[in-house]
Amino acid sequence: MTSDGGHDGRHRLPPAEQVAAQAYLPRSRAAQAWTRAMGDGTTRRRRRVLLELLGVVAFCTAGFYLLSEPVRLVEVPLIVWGLHLVGVDAVAALGTNIVLASPEGYLTAAVTPSCSALLAVLALAALAGSVLRGQGWRTVGALIVTSALLVFLNGLRIGASVALGTVLGRSALGLFHDWVGTVANFVFTITGFVIMIWLLLPSPIRAEQDRFGRHTAHRPVQWAQSGLGYRTEVHLKGTHMTTNSPAARLHRLYPRALRERSTRRREADRVDFRVGALEPHARATALRELVSDGLAVHAATLWAAAGHETDPEVLDALADAVAARQWEPTVNDKVGGIRLWARAWLAGRPGVPHVSDGGPEAPQPSGDGLRIMVTGSGGPAGVSVIRRLRQLGYWTVAADADPHSAGETLGDSAVNLPLADDEHYLDVLLAACRDEAVDGVIFTTVEEMAAVDPLAFERARVTIWIPSPGALRSTVDKVRFAKAMAAAGIPHPATTATADGLRDVPGPWIVKPVSGRGSRGVMAIDTESAVRWTLNHRDGYIAQTRLTGREWTCDALIGRDGAPLVAVPRWRDQTRGGISVMGTTFVDQEQIKAVTTLVHATCAAVGITGPACVQGFVDEGTTTIVELNPRFSGGLPLTIASGADVVDAYTRLMLDRHADVGDLTWHRGVRMSRYFAEVFHDRYNRRLADPARSARLGLLRENGFEIPDSDPIGSPAPAARA
Q1: Within this chain, do residues 319 and 444 fall inside the same structural domain, yes or no?
Q2: 305, 381, 554, 704: which could form a disulfide with 569 (CB 3.0–4.6 Å)?
Q3: Do 481 and 342 belong to one domain?
Q4: Collapsing DSSP states into helix, strand and coil, what is residue 459?
Q5: Segments forming the whole domain that contains residue 94
Q6: Distance of CA 482 to the CA centre of its chain
Q7: How do residues 42-64 score in pLDDT, each as one tens digit?
Q8: What is the dihedral of CA 663, 668, 673, 678, to 10 degrees?
Q9: Which of these, 647, 643, 650, lies nearest to 664 by C-alpha position?
Q10: Cβ neighbours of residue 86 closer than 8 Å, sequence gap 6 or more
């Protein structure tokens, strides 16, 4: 060392700095000459593969030559011992031969080298040592298990031939060994190979990881799709990452241009599921960045996002980003599909009405959207069903007796029907189904269910699902319903349809029509004389004991076989006109169990299938059933918001009785507050854009959509199906 802090050339750098420095030091002439003599990387890799093949051939040849005799000397006694165990005593081991007594006298069956399991075991050992060696001790264990199985099966084959020879003689022994035995030996070898590969398969959690964890099978729930993983960032110090799979080795032999092309193609088809694990806002940002690289670069990831994403904010961001790259060429089917999806989403995404300056013709449905007619579209249940079907991607046909009902403007198309008690109702309904080419009809009023003929719909090839006539009568007629509850032992308020029966019905009373809905005609009466006068002078009325406590409603869905699929009880916190405007799903587990058990018993007592709206009261721990309506309820949005999509499940089961709807679950404590909403249309009954959402129209203009400034008319297109 010098006094001024310099060095004399013998000072050594730290190990990490030495490695970094050596990368930039010029190599010696000897090293360069060695590299030229050995060839480039491709030549060395080809030479390594050739040496491995020669090594495998040498290993199998030497092993077969050296071990053939010793292995057979072990196999023959084991085969004879096994035959003695199963009762074949007329055999004995003699070196590599088996002596047996047959009807033709004593025979000697020679176990030749080709009869031994050695060759198959050597082949598997060569495979394990060359291609599968990266598994370490797992490969050794799999090889031991597979080899033992092959030795056992081969011994079983030879033993069966010998046993057959002791009974039928030389010809049977030779025939079985030469033909059946040869085929069996081939099958045993292939089976052993498959079993060894199966033993080396990683566990599900490691199915898409290498030994350093660079791939993971942990997929986000948002984009769940079997068979695909995503890359994870790892930082390994002092570890050389190598890939020894046969496919990777073959890939190194490709010419450079072909290798780069296949790499680009593989990356374009790889789904980056890391994006799906992010929070919604971060997912939206990540998808915008991927789109900015080009639609074709990350086509698989963008396609997965469009098909599996459920968050509207993320889908909005993706659709806007795709729409901004209209200049990019469509180079493959995925890019074209992403463009079509973005166009459909922008046209029908929630809150953005499609606006056009076209004529009064109705918008056309999507190519694969099923067409569903919803009757009673002007009621709360009809409106809720239409909205949910639109979100699910169905083409909806709104049907109602009122041509100006709000529900009809919410559907993709609309038809007017007469009232259910009209003698021409069924004919008009079937004609409308034929004209609109609907696949199924959902009835949201009980009166219409009672007026239809299922056979007529079957002949018209239109699918419906309504309860049986007996079940309908037991729910529509409140007297019959009360008798059914009494027969089943289900708590129900005392009921009478005559003034004389009031002695068994304590007051105060509720007087209502024997068949009705929506609290129409319901009266609360406190004096017995007023109740008697009503029952004597008004036809079709009943009186019930007025219940106290907290009122609830339960939306249930019963399968075609009568099995309950789901029941979602909710408190009716506030009602207007018999419709719940504020509600909360149950929280207490004991109350949930008590109410749902009673609801299921009620549905079973009347034989109802499909949707059921059950109402009742809870008073000091006692639960009482008031009535059951075999239809969707007016408070249906709360049930769907809680997680139980009964509209989707019912529609799928209606169209396919064998459809698998999975487990319908729901969340406790979900609250609903209703408010008035408006629907606007012009003098031609065409949908007008909501002026409160004009800001969204400005967003469409910024993204290149032509929207007229005056007389904005049109109808929202159905949402793209997930």
Answers
A1: no
A2: 554
A3: no
A4: helix
A5: 43-200
A6: 42
A7: 777 777 778 888 888 888 888 88
A8: -10
A9: 643
A10: 163
Measured CA to CA, the distance from residue 214 to residue 235 in angstroms comes to: 10
In a domain, 540, yes or no: no
* Number of structural domains found in the chain: 5
Main-chain phi, psi angles of 711, to 5 degrees = 50, 55
Q: Tell how strand 440-442 and strand 495-496 pair up.
A: unpaired
CATH number at residue 626: 3.30.470.20
> Given the structure tokens 């699929």, which residue do they identify?
565
Query: What is the Cα–Cα distance from 676 to 637, expressed in whole angstroms?
Result: 14
The 8 Å CB, 24+ separation contacts for 658-662 are 661/565
Q: 497: closest CA among 517, 477, 467?
A: 477
Closest CA to 619 of 500, 493, 514: 493
CATH number at residue 403: 3.40.50.20
Q: What's the rounded Cα separation, in Å, for the pair 303 and 332? A: 12
User: What is the structure's pLDDT at 363?
Assistant: 36
Within 8 A by CB and 6+ apart from 117, the residues are: 71, 75, 147, 150, 151, 153, 154, 155
Q: Is the pTM of this model over 0.85?
A: no
How do residues 153-172 score in pLDDT, each as one tens digit? 888 888 888 887 787 877 77
Same domain, 182 and 83: yes
Say if 6 falls within a structural domain: no
Cβ count within 10 A of residue 442: 29
E strand or H helix at 580, and its extent? Answer: strand 579-585
Token pair of 615 as six digits: 């109402």
d(CA 680, CA 691): 10
Could you tell me how many helices (H) and strands (E) the chain has, helices first?
25, 19
**Distance in angstroms (rounded) separating the CA atoms of residues 398 and 411:** 5
**DSSP code at position 151:** H
Which residue is associated with the tokens 């249906």? Answer: 636
Q: Cα 606–607–612 angle (5° rounding)?
A: 80
What pLDDT sits at residue 599?
92
One domain for residues 65 and 195: yes
Do 299 and 432 fall into the same domain? Answer: no
Q: How far is CA 5 from CA 1, 15, 70, 164, 331, in A?
A: 7, 21, 73, 94, 64
Q: Which residue among 634, 649, 673 closes a domain? A: 673
Does residue 558 sit in the same domain as residue 702?
Answer: no
Sequence-distant (6+) residues with CB within 8 A of 84 are 91
Q: Give the residue among 145, 311, 110 at the shortest CA–CA distance from 221.
A: 311
What separation in angstroms does the CA of 108 have from each of 75, 117, 126?
16, 20, 34
**3-class DSSP assignment, residue 175:** helix
User: Can you name the residues that pair with 94 across neighbouring β-strands?
Assistant: 97
Residue 236 lies in a domain: no
The answer to whether residue 248 scores a pLDDT higher than 50 is yes
| Residue 361 domain-assigned (yes or no) | no
618 and 695 belong to one structural domain:
no
The dihedral built from the CA positions of residue 319, 324, 330 and 331, taken in this order, carries a sign that is: negative
Domain identity same for 269 and 180: no
- pLDDT of 373 reads 93
How far is the C-alpha of 559 from the C-alpha of 612, rounded, in Å?
11
